[in-house]
Amino acid sequence: MNIIAKRSASWVGGCVWYLERRALQESPRRFLHLLRNVNQQWVTFQHFNFLRHMYVTQLNRSFNQQIKPKPEPVPSPFLEKASLDEAKTEIYKMRPLSPASLSLSRKPNEKESIELEPTPVIEGSIAVGTETKEEKQWKEMKLRVDDLPGILARLSKIKLTALVVSTTSAGFALAPAPFDWPCFLLTFVGTGLASCAANSINQFFEVPFDSNMNRTKNRPLVRGQISPLLAVSFAACCAVPGVALLTWGVNPLTGALGLFNIFLYTCCYTPLKRISIANTWVGAVVGAIPPLMGWTAATGSLDAGAFLLGGILYSWQFPHFNALSWGLREDYSRGGYCMMSVTHPDLCRRVALRHCLALVAMSAAAPALDVTTWTFPVIALPINLYISYLGFRFYRDADRKSSRKLFFCSLWHLPLFLLLMLTCKRPAAQGDAGGPQS
Amino acid sequence: MAVSRFCPPRKSCHDWIGPPDKHSNLQPVHFYIPENESPLEQKLRELRQETQERNQQFWANQNLTFLKEKEEFIDSRLKAKGLELRAESGQKATLNAEEMADFYKEFLSKNFRKHMYCNRDWYKRNLAITFFMGKVALERIWNKLRLKQKKTSN
Fold first, then answer.
1. Closest approach of chain B CAs to the CA of A334, in angstroms?
2. Which residue from B8, B97, B111 is facing A329, i.e. has the nearest CB?
3. Inter-chain contact A204–B108, Cβ cutoff 8 Å?
4. pLDDT of residue A427
5. Which chain A residues contact residue B101 at CB under 8 A?
6. Which helix (H) or strand (E) holds B29?
7. pTM for the complete prediction?
8. Nearest Cα to A229, choosing from A140, A139, A143?
9. Which contiguous run of DSSP H or E holds residue B16?
10. Residue A140: its pLDDT value, please?
């Protein structure tokens, strides 16, 4: 009895081993040929499952955010590949079988030995048919050196960094000091590095929240393209040289402002976004500091002109952000972000309008503070009036159309405004102290 | 949480990340377990696994609740207006963004406390995971150096 059982067991084990070896050694085509007889009956069933899966996916897209399923051009190549994938999974499923796990009596062994081959394949086919499409979307979390620059660019929000650095450059250029190229380049690089660091930490903190918003779901940490450890290391590798460059290459005041801004953005603004609407005001200060840094880099001190420039950037944040946030209310509500547009919509629009008008007032203050000539408020009036008009429309209409108009206007208004300021810069008087201090 | 039936290829010794879950929008990670996993590595892996499961549960629940309550809000508003829930074309009637604003505000304030708790938990875990990742990285470097030293001395 025991000998028969052992022989049956070893025969079954041998079958399994044989199939495994064939699968691994032979080419996929020959193996498919092996399974074809079984598969043919399941071809139509898999096709149905595939279509059903596609339909459900399409339906869910309107409710949930999902990676858009790639359309399969022809069903048959897909099914062939599905068969191959099935074959692979069958091998994994069959592997754990060992002769010891089989029962010792004869009859059940015979039954098992007959059912052993088809059963796993059949059950596997049904289960695997629908999931191979999902399986293809799984990616190995292996960092490729070629991808690293792109990943780090997205991690550091390179476009936003570019905007921040250009406002710093505007501050540097508008300061009443002769333009010093080495100092400018050091400020440029230092501020850029500080901004990269701050943006990386911000993304590091917000992974699960970013996953749930359309705007941010493709960020590197969300998609697992980089590990959190690497993200933090990168941030440190940007922050340390960036702040050091500003402190010792430019001046300590600029370095201190840079460090303070990193702290404000990562440790105040980022967590505050989920606690209180005050985050918008803190965020506006974060946006106002870079031009301040540009000014202090050129002159070494914070004076009225610096604060005016900071004030301009501060006020600009409100029509820009409040208009943007108007269209994201659903995402903010679902994701748990405390934004004025959701909790205090009237305040949101009122503040946006208020700051559009503040921009007009500050253009008039520019010549009074010797930053620009009196030509500036005059030539800036048309664009200032236009943004104020759009701010008023947003305040009154409170709809998506007016919010979008205001947002897009803010995108071109700022660079044009700064450019006009530069062209109307008050020429330096004789005996002006200004100059880069180290 | 639906357990993924994904099985990574045998030769891979990395983690694998899947497509976003349709309820939570989070991308699940299948963690690789090396043969010679140290206690520290195991602790890290278990922490990451646990954090992933908690996040999955929270966000799946959050999103589903949102959708459900949104539907209920739309239905009740449409009924109050005396409008049909479906237009003649069979399309579901919706409210515009301004009408939905009340719902968004209410939903946000209702879930505020839950988010506070979740935020605190997430920040703690995220920092712990990153810290342990650093420790594991150092441990691996140290082991490699020790191995090299042994080889050169032999």
1. 7
2. B97
3. no
4. 85
5. 329, 342, 345
6. strand B29-30
7. 0.74
8. A143
9. strand B16-17
10. 87
**Rounded to whole angstroms, how far apart are CA atoms A186 and B63?**
47
For the residues B56-67, what does the mean pLDDT come to? Answer: 95
Query: DSSP label at A99?
Result: G
Within 8 A by CB and 6+ apart from A222, the residues are A207, A210, A211, A216, B27
Q: What is the ipTM of this complex?
A: 0.89
Candidates A128, A141, A342; nearest CB to B105: A342
Contacts of B53 in chain A (CB under 8 A): none
Pairing of strands A139-140, B29-30: unpaired
Q: Is B86 helix (H, G, I), strand (E, B) or coil?
A: strand
Q: Are A325 and A332 in contact (CB under 8 A)?
A: yes
Residue with tokens 């079954």: A12
* A137, B19 Cβ separation under 8 angstroms: yes
- Which residue carries 């603004």 as its tokens? A269
> Do A334 and B27 count as a contact with CB atoms less than 8 A apart?
no
DSSP three-state, residue A425: strand
CA distance A378 to A367: 11
CA A164 to chain centre: 18
Write the CB contacts of B32 (distance below 8 Å, at least 6 apart in sequence).
B8, B12, B13, B14, B15, B16
Angle, nearest 10°, between helix axes A181-205 and A148-155? 90
pLDDT class of A10 with cuts at 50, 70, 90? low
Mean pLDDT of the region B5-32: 87
β-bridge pairing B16-17 and B29-30: antiparallel
Separation CA B99–CA B117 (nearest Å):
30
Return the structure tokens found at A385.
């009036």
pLDDT tens-digit readout, A88-99:
444 333 443 444
Per mean pLDDT, which range of A18-27, A78-87, A377-386 is the poorest? A78-87
